[in-house]
Structures are given as structure tokens and as C-alpha cells.
Amino acid sequence: MTAHSIDDETHGNGYAAGPDTDGRTDDGTATQVDVELGDAALDVHVPRGTVVLAATPIGNTADASARLVALLERADIVAAEDTRRLYALANRLGVHVAGRVVANHDHNERGKADGLLDEVAAGATVLVVSDAGMPTINDPGLAIVRRAIERGLPVTCAPGPSAVLDALALSGLPTDRFCYEGFLPRKHAERVQHLRALKGERRTVVFYETLHRIADAMADLEEIFGPDRPMALCRELTKDYEQIRRGTIGEIRRGVEDDPPRGEMVLVVGGAQDGEEDGGETLGVEALAALATRYAQEHDVRIKDAIATVVAEHPGVDGALANKKQVYAAVLAARGGR
């Protein structure tokens, strides 16, 4: 995609070199913009020929930074996850978005990247924003960052609100070491496998979850991690109705059943402690076949049912389950092919 050929434009403003009428410099490097913040006027640096990732408020509009305001006003192109939400934010901030606005979401960002970067190479400031929080963190933006690095074009960041860090700080759980796992898988089997792989994780673990899946997610968390692991469920972060539910997994699950939370939420789960199982050694198909044979005899069930039970109870260290057909073949082989 060549320069000036980006789709989904809603309006635009050129950035060709010439007399400076809006605070931009003619040398194509940067501009300083005065932004009013209370009684103070801040000089905000707006880099030219650069991709800028900017964090937007996750709930409270007042969390918008002076840099975000200046970038929204002065960027040549704003690549937004949802253009309607971008304009709604700009209206709340009293900001006029003078640059060209393009849609940049999960379904089109790879195709958009080179066209946007052609503009950067020509001297444009391209601002990348998501609906809330920092681009690339479970939101669009990664494709343009990777291509910019490959093409040797500058990328910088205007940091700000983050639901992950907010929830982690408010959870009361250890923050010195943590891992972020994004949204849990939608399907039950995939979610269980994913959680099994994390059971022995000693760092605090952070997940995102939605209203429609929170009950199932909590049930699986309790099944895999047990009811006593400490956790926090955080919702409506930075908003007037912010809520942090702290307790054990079992307590939080009962709370979800009795008083279902609304909206997207962040789950912060304590890491594994000494004595908790970490998944152990992965059993091979022959060992699983032997266990299944013994289980079938002891419980008087069909071998296929025994295999299903044994395989489910003995995941690998990565949470993956053995292939039941291979275990069945191993059972037949042990029986001499009968």
C-alpha cells in the first residue's frame, strides 16, 4: 500500500513542508505544543516521522494525559481501534482531532501497517490508540510496531492508564513478579488445558474476562487451582462504581454466583505456593495405558471410558492431554493385539 492510499478515512489534514501555521516545524523533526493543565502550561513534544502509541483512559476521562491531548490535536494521522469511540473521547476532552482518522482494528491492522508507515517515512506523526488502555496490550497496534521495527522507522510511547497494572496494584497480591495471560480461552476444554499449564506458576497471574464467561471461568479456576488460592476480581476500574472483590478463589466464585458482576473485569490470582502440585512428570502413552487397564478392572468400566478418565487426570506439564487413540492402541499392544 502506497502513501496517501489508506482506506477508512473520516477526514484529513495535510502535513507537507511549508510555512508553519499550527505549531509544526519545517525541518520535519518535532514540534512543541502548549497544553493547559490546571493553571500550568506544559510544553509537549510531538515527534515527526514517528509512530506514537498512546494510552487512553480505561474508564475515567480525567486520566487522559497532556501528551495524549497534544497528540490528538497535532498528529497527522490517528489510527484508532474504533473511530466513533475516538471522537467520543475527543469530545469529552474538548479536543479537535485535526489529522486524518483511520480505522485500525484486529481485522485490518496487518493490511494497514505498511500504508501507515509509508506516511511515517514521508514525515508524518502517526498516532495509534485503542478503545481503552495501551495499544498492543490485548489490543491492536502490534502489527504496525513490528513492521516499523523491520523498516527501521521510529516508534515511541505515550504511557498512561492500564487495567492490568491498576488491578495488580489494587489486588493486594505480590507485585514483584507477575505474568499477564490476557483473556482466557472461550472453550471449556481449551480453558482447562490453559489453566493446567499455569497451575504451578509461582508469579501472580493476571487475566481478563467478560461478563458472559466469568461464571464458567471461575468454576474452572476452582477446579484446577483449588478453592483456597487467593485472588481479586476487579471491575469498573477508575470509574465511580469501581469494585474490587478480594478473597479466595472459592469465595470469589460463590460471590460471582450470588451477585454476578457486570462488564469486563480483571482477575488477579496468587501464584502457586510450596507444596502445591506443579503438574509433575508427563506420563507416556504406555504408562497411561497401564493405568487405564488397572482403572477399568478396579472400577468395572469399559476400557475406553477408563482411558478418558485417566487421560483427563494426567495432563502434561504444559497442560496438554495425551491422545486417547494412541493410549488405546498401547492398551491393545499390551494385550498382544487382542
Structural overview:
The protein is α/β, with parallel strands linked by helices. Helices cover 36% and strands 20% of the residues. The protein is built from eleven helices and twelve strands. The strands form three sheets. It has a five-stranded parallel β-sheet, with helices on both faces. It starts with 29 loop residues before the first strand and ends with a helix.
Helix and strand topology:
Layout: E1 30-37, E2 40-47, E3 50-54, H1 66-74, E4 77-80, H2 83-93, E5 100-103, H3 109-121, E6 125-129, H4 142-151, E7 155-158, H5 163-171, E8 178-183, H6 188-198, E9 204-209, H7 214-225, E10 230-235, E11 243-248, H8 249-258, E12 265-269, H9 285-299, H10 303-313, H11 324-334
Parallel strand pairs: 3-6, 3-7, 4-5, 4-6, 8-9
Antiparallel strand pairs: 1-2, 9-12, 10-11, 10-12
Helix pairs in contact: 3-4, 6-7, 7-8, 9-10, 9-11
Quick structural summary:
The chain is α/β, with parallel strands linked by helices.
